[in-house]
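cron nightly-structures :: item 1 of 1
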Amino acid sequence: MGKFILRRLLLLIPILLGLTLLIFVFIHLLPGDPAIAILGDRASPENVERVREALGLNEPLYQQYLDYMGGLLQGDLGRSFITNRDVVDDFLQRFPATIELSLSAIIFAIVLGIPLGLVTAKQRGRWGDQVGTVASLIGISIPIFFLGLMLKWLFAIQWPILPDSGRIDLIEYYIPRVTNFMTIDAILAGEWGGFVDAVRHLILPAVALGTIPLAIIMRITRASVIDVLNEDYVRTANAKGLPSGIVDSRHILRNALLPVVTVIGLQTGLLLGGAILTETIFGWGGVGTWIYDAVTTRDYAVIQSGVLMLALIFVLVNLLVDVSYGFLNPRIRYS
């Protein structure tokens, strides 16, 4: 196991190096000029040239890349062109919001997706399976921006039972930022009303963001459970008269979870990459909107380092998924 993890970590080096080059080339192919984004469209050519020189944008591209990599190897991820703030500081300030939203969405998807997948698989061909199939297809097909707007219209405007944007009611509650996880900071401050309010603010964006993973997890669970139901050990367990709950948990789900865990890991990594549409619709202010704003203003340092850190997190999440295989199925051995 230790050698397997070490090999995977060493593979991160060429992956991240290649990613830095791809990101660098991509952002320099984008139309627009960071200097003009800073100064505005009416800036004089002399001022634009002065800003470009100050930012090092007049250097050859290969030199800009080498300068960036030199800083990266020293732990310097650069500073924002727009705010002049350290990229790491901005990332650490915003990433807890994305984690809080992403984990809420994936928990919502897992808690509903796995049981629904199991139920529809055991009712294969009957009305429950058909209803579940239609619902999952709708969940996969519906655009997030449309679902988010509909949820806001229904539950924040027509029936105003949930807040429509933000992470907490800033007028009613003042919570010191310790971890930047709004729910955790509310608990640390002993502000239980603020905690409830933070959870209420989480519901709509988490449902909107978690609907597609929910549908995917449900479909994968259904397909995997159907395969396991035909195995001899399941038929033997049923023939021995074991309670259905024990058969489901010990014999069916445990052996059907490997592909489901893979999908959960991939979906978690994608959600942690920043849900731009969801964060924008609900005014969440996480990493997704941070990088989106950087793209619109051509803030090269934020784009390069922000995407790089998200890629690193995505790979580490999938490493944890691979390691979990050995615990879910003892027959798997890492060589």
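cron nightly-structures :: done
Residues 114 and 218 are 6 Å apart (CA to CA).
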